[in-house]
Amino acid sequence: MAEAAVAKTPADPKAEQDLTDGFHLVIDALKLNGINTIYGVPGIPVTDLGRMAQAAGIRVISFRHEQNAGYAAAIAGFLTRKPGVCLTVSAPGFLNGLTALAHATTNCFPMILISGSSEREIVDLQQGDYEEMDQLAIAKPLCKAAYRVLHAQDIGIGFARAIRAAVSGRPGGVYLDLPAKLFGQVMNAEAGRKSLVKVIDAAPAQIPAPDAVKRALDVFKSAKRPLIILGKGAAYAQADDAIRTFVEKSGAPFLPMSMAKGLLPDNHPQCAGAARSTVLKESDVVLLIGARLNWLLSHGKGKTWGEAPRKFIQLDIEPKEMDSNVEIVAPLVGDIGSCVNALLEGMGGKWPKPPADWTGAVTKKREDNVAKMAPRFMSNAVPMDYYGALGVLRNVVKERPDAILVNEGANALDLARGAIDMYRPRKRLDVGTWGVMGIGMGYAIAAAIETGKGVLAVEGDSAFGFSGMEVETICRYQLPVCVVIFNNDGIYRGTDVNPAGSDPATTVFVKGSRYDKMMEAFGGVGVNATTPDELRRAVNEAMDSGKPTLINAVIDPAAGSESGRIGNLNPQSVLKKK
Ligand code: OXT
Ligand code: ADP
Ligand code: MG
User: Fold this and answer.
1) 462 ligand 1 Cβ < 6 A
2) How many domains does the chain have?
3) Is residue 202 in some structural domain?
4) How far apart are CA 445 and CA 427, in angstroms?
5) Measured between alpha carbons, how far is 330 from 269 in angstroms, rounded to an integer?
6) Which sign does the torsion angle of CA 402, 407, 411, 414 carry?
7) In terms of CB atoms within 10 Å, which end of the chain has fewer, N or C?
8) pLDDT tens profile 410-442
């Protein structure tokens, strides 16, 4: 055996003061680096770590399932630009947290998954330790970096590496493996203190090259029909004023990706959110700011983008992102704050407005679409349809622009994205790049904890089911979260029928379920809302009181469509129709 596994209690209390151990060094490393919240689930070997962290003034939020704690950490990273920390037990707890770690990496959110692990000697010889698993090897392909700390004196460096890897360059998920034995390792307290590292300038500015700035501006200036696309990288960057000034100075229409909504308000005169297909098809120069040309933008080609020739300018911190799907004629590599400021400087005092026929056409399309939608939001149909219910929620958010909106589902996601205008940056949090169901309660909890603002979580009934048990967590910590479940009895719709037997169809749930009772079970407020009026009253009351509330909004089971707005992605069997 290597080092002493357990601290010996010294007889002399003075000697004890001179010692520290792995538990304390981990806590000190977090605190030294300004990480004041841990999301996790306790158990062997990290139970005492959670207790001690709490005693040391770190906020430790205990979840019912690691995946939800992981999603909380991931979105905490997005909201704060500091790595969100998720703490799990070994093997099964680690695996439960891993989906969230991969999600953080995919979405470019800084996060650190810290998992306790079993004894290396036994794991490596595969001798069947308690919760044995080679966690480091499994985590590696799913995150940006993965480290294991074996010695107490390396804890400081291990955390420094993890923090820097999570937030520098393109942010992402980092795995930190802490074997059980590490926590009890003892060392001299002074040497321990000295071994800790306060990470200086964890995400250094990345200044773009002047010729790249000039190239980008030359191409942008040549546009007859310019478009700016803002992605969640732009929201993450917290360069809100510079981005707004740049967009307004350019006079170009801007299209916010869903988590970039509110960076400039959705009712801004240049916003093309309600003219999406027009601007994608007809623009001739597109400037991407913190948005990837992935599936959400149809890879920059095909029917969505039409036939017209088009030039792309891309602003991103990750050089490898350039030309990933189509040619980028003006790559601008650097951090968004530095790049946008450099663009502003290069634009000088005056910048030509885009041709009025272009901006006019976009405005007209937007106004037509908004006018078309308006009467739907007034619908008083019972059972409610999506639009009638969303008409209520859109006003709730308009009256409370600082509230955070969490949103998941298929129809409950896609229709809410268009219906609910956002007015401030980083107020809309949703399923992200992978379209993941299950982010809901973890995101809602972290949003409330990290911002102190009220949270409105708009959830499909299926989506909610992935993290529903966390309503107990919401009640336990008395968080200002109002969950509205769009209960249409199933996935996409509640009307499917199994043609071949008595089992329910694969997409339907128990009819007439009362999710509101779940919240009541833990002392929160539960409301069953069957009309827009009942919904309005209940949501307003919840948002005003800040009491944990769950509203079961009864939606017409026939109202939804297959996969919301992405039904085209479902493969079709030619044999199905036989
Ligand atoms: O320009 P045009 O004319 O085209 O019009 C556009 C806009 O201009 C206009 N618009 C507006 N008009 C007026 N006013 C306003 N304010 C306005 N704003 C916009 O409206 C249209 C549409 O605009 P939009 O939405 O911007 O554009 P579009 O074309 O939709 O954009 C394309 C996309 C791809 C960018 C967009 O659709 C998008 O972001 N989509 C994300 C989709 C997504 O990620 N979906 C989630 C995954 S679906 C599926 O996989 C589900 N699963 C499987 C599963 C998953 N995902 N995860 C796990 C862990 N396990 C399994 C499951 C289980 S969904 C699901 C559950 C579903 O059931 P629920 O009960 O939860 O939900 P319900 O469906 O409600 O029952
Ligand atoms: P969306 O889904 O909203 O289109 P994506 O997640 O696809 O957004 O893209 C976000 C992009 O932003 C990523 O390519 C990432 O590298 C980039 N990014 C994140 N933070 C920064 C930053 N501070 N500066 C520059 N680019 C950033
Ligand atoms: Mg549903």
Assistant:
1) yes
2) 3
3) no
4) 14
5) 27
6) positive
7) C
8) 999 999 999 999 999 999 999 999 999 999 999
